[in-house]
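This protein record is not my work; I was only asked to verify it. Where you disagree with what is written, explain briefly why. This is what I was given:
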Amino acid sequence: MSEQTEQKGRADNVDKLVSSRLKMRRVMLGMSQQDLGRAVDVSIQQVQKYEKATNRISSGKLYAFAKFLKVPITYFYDQSEDNSQIMGSAFAEDNDEYDAHDPNFVTEKEIISLIRAFSEIKSPQSRKKIIELVKTMS
C-alpha cells in the first residue's frame, strides 16, 4: 500500500487546527460537548472525535458549528497575526517540531484562560498595553 493510500482519511495538520479551534470556541463560551452536539445533531462521542481530530469535520458540519458558535467559517482557519505561528506549523509539510512535552509549549488550557481573562478587560487602552507587554516579553 502506498503512503498516500495509508494516509487517506487520517486527520492532517489543518484538520487538527480546525478541531482545536472548535474546542477552544466551545470552551470559551462555557458550553459542554453535549450542548454542542445537540445543537448540530451529533452525539457527544462524535463531538469528542471532532475535537480530537479523530474524525474529520465535513464542510456541512463545520458550517453548522460556525453558525451555532456565532463565528465565521474563517474562524477555524484564522491567519491573523496573533496565531500565524500556529497556522505556519499547521500548514507545514512536516510538523516534527511539535512536542507537547516541551516545557515551552503553551497548552490549550493556558490559552483559553488567558483569552477569558483578556476578554474581561474593558479598557481598549489596557488591552493594547497588555498586547505590547506580551510582545515585548516574547
The CA atoms of residues 89 and 96 lie 9 Å apart.
